[in-house]
Amino acid sequence: MFRVLKHCSYLALCLIFILNSCTSRTNGEGKKIVTNPNAMDKEVAGQIESTLNKLADNSGKVNDSMSLNMQQIVSEFYNKNDHQPVWSSTEKWLPLADSLYLFIKNAENEGLFPSDYHFSNLKILKDTLDKDSVARMNANLWTRADLLLTDGFMHIIKDLKQGRLQPDSLSLNKDSVLVDKFFIASLNKLIEKKDLNGLFVSLQPKHKKYWELKKGIKRFVDSMDRRVFTHVTYPFKRGDEKDSLYFIKTLQKRLAENNCISAGKKMPDSTELSAALKKYQAQKGLKADGKYGREIISSLNSNDAERFKRIAITLDRYKQLPEKMPEKYIWVNLPGYYLELVNADTVVFESKVICGKPETRTPLLTSEISDIVTYPTWTVPTSIIVKQYLPKLKNNPNYISRLGLKLMNGKGEVINPGSINWAKYSKGIPYRIVQGSGDNNSLGVIKFNFDNPYAVYLHDTNQRYLFKNASRALSHGCVRVQEWEKLAYYIAGNDSTLSKNRDSLKYTADSIRNWISHKERHMIDVKNHITLFIRYFSCEGKNGVIKFYEDIYGEDKQLMEKYFAKK
Q1: Which of 62, 269, 451, 484 shows its CA 20 to 30 Å from the CA of 103?
Q2: Which long-range contacts (CB under 8 A, 24 or more apart) does 510-518 make?
Q3: CB 100 within 8 A of CB 118
Q4: What is the residue range of 81's domain?
Q5: Using CA atoms, how far apart are residues 155 and 510, in angstroms rounded to an integer?
Q6: Is residue 43 part of a domain?
Q7: For the whole model, what pTM was predicted?
Q8: Residues 38 and 174 in one domain
């Protein structure tokens, strides 16, 4: 009996010795057990190297459910750092791992999507490694976690710095394409400084409006309604009682979902419906006029999940602006229907604008105000001639004369439109159609020219009453400015202030006032060009609250379908 016990004790001691002396052993499929915590980092490093070698031949796929988005950069980083784990050591998470995991978990507060950075898989790994002491001895789990965190970090760097939208001709940011060494240097900097938040903040645009928008995101996310609501079809067939009744019933049902009206079977009268609309408009920061139209129906049909995607798109649009904006510039936001004159990051003044209809969109562009014309003439663009004027000229050659327009040849001579065989033209005409200067001119009493290939400009209008409209996508493509006087006088003052030789200036603000009062036509050469940005930003932050504008051209919808369809 004593011999048996002695033999068993010897075997137990041998087993303990073997377990303690071995750095690792395979224990079933997908497991690499390391019994000595001090040996874990070495084992994980080896696992990282072998995994990356396999990934190179497998298009970055870790397994059927996981893949690396930035496999090449991740591999390059680990190759330069001897494949050492970044986020854990001796079977313990490092503080940076906790910080990054928390950032990914709350990525929506940054206008990002947690799923882009492996959150689901990371959550499973973290929960397992935190709660299971046996799992903590599995080098495969630590390897997988390290690779996913590194890949997630690199992806965040890209999205914060560059954004997710494909760079276009407007993307003036020189960092529109980031090189591999930028990502690697960023992670090395993090490892050295251990300041995750500081690093991420430094990558993002300095634009004031960008940070104003970000201030409102957490509040929006915390109150997000992720339900799917009733879709309201609009416009309906006016005069068709059946269609109009269906519209009212659907509208009632949708407003009831926001607790703005009773969902009962009783049809609301006009007063009840107006009150419900006002309540909804107040909820969403819209003009509370109690009237239904394109703007409010668009809001009703846009759920919070879609609004979040619009926030994400808008943040990325800021990333496509120059890293440093000019000291002075004019900012036109088409969905917001406004123009701002900005000086030293301060809005000098703001003006309502009218922009192009969906079928005649105002183009997005960057240019500079080059000259100003008082009491301008208007040359009708070819697109308007072909689409609107030419079909009517074929039926009535005097059509343009009745509108007060003149037909002119290349020599500037006035031609009788009745003498032209309009039937032979379809894609354009070898003439100009011109409206003379005057108070009834479509451009109003002043226009601001800037270089662009679209034949558009900023100008006054002879239809100033349209500025009262909430939805102001009404022009043929040009931007009509309500506060044109303020813009003109600021430009004049800017030239006067900055001009080294004031005597050489041929105009002042007083000159413009005088010329307009006398209805005189003058072309004014602007000495100090002011940069003009015409952009499409469908939401912005105001005092910690996000204000949404109508997606008038469907630009956001198109980008959502392209980049965020599966989010």
Answers
A1: 62
A2: 512/372, 512/374, 512/446, 512/488, 513/489, 515/374, 515/375, 516/374, 516/375, 516/445, 516/446
A3: no
A4: 23-204
A5: 55
A6: yes
A7: 0.85
A8: yes
